[in-house]
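Hi again,

Forgot to attach this to my earlier email, sorry! This is the prediction with S-adenosylmethionine bound. I've pasted everything inline since the attachment limit keeps bouncing my files.
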Amino acid sequence: MRLRNIPGADKAIEESEYCFNNPETLKGRWKEQFPAVRPLYIEIGMGKGRFIMEMAARNPDINFLGIERYSSVLLRALQKMEQTPLPNLKFICMDAAELEEVFAPGEVSRIYLNFSDPWPKDRHAKRRLTSRQFFFRYHNILAKDGRLEFKTDNQDLFSFSLEEIPLAGWRLDAFTRDLHRDPVLNEGNIMTEYEEKFSSLGNPICKLIASR
Ligand code: SAM
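Structure tokens for the complex follow:
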């Protein structure tokens, strides 16, 4: 993602009622951080937040947390949230490498990864959010019957992800390399900002669902 440093973004996030600062202090207590006790779904690398905001609006019986590494990007989601607040959605500005410091075992019921950065160089494979190293982290925070859903238009990253799943001890439940033409997997699909951009260029969208 092209990134423009927005002056004041860090401060806006620090002061926002929709963001958790020091999220590691809430480990094991995420249920209490929302008006109602519900299952917790997270999106990692949520960008400007269209997907998770629409998910939260459509699913009031689920609590959602959007995770984004860059404050300048997260700020865009916060601005939208100020216009249309949702009681079941909050945000954290953090690197997903620290997930296990923030969530207790089993605390998360579902993980969404949408159009994650591809890190194309082999030596950076560990940084991909669908590398086995990240699947181990997800294993440590996900509920027993939890699952992970991943979408991308990047064919190489998708092939890599399909290979990593069994190597990490996970199970591939479903996948498609043309989501928008798959009536089953596309049902209720919410397009992310990147999905809209790349599908309008004619790129097929890939999706997989994985669990343990
Ligand atoms: N999910 C959005 C979409 O589909 O439109 C944004 C996709 S953008 C290519 C990837 C996003 O993931 C960026 O905003 C980036 O900052 C964030 N990201 C990448 N690695 C991350 C990490 N380790 N932890 C948290 N966010 C990360």
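The chain has a mean pLDDT of 96. The pocket of S-adenosylmethionine is lined by residues 1, 44-47, 67-70, 73, 95-97, 114-117, 192-195 (CB under 6 Å).

That should be everything now.

G.
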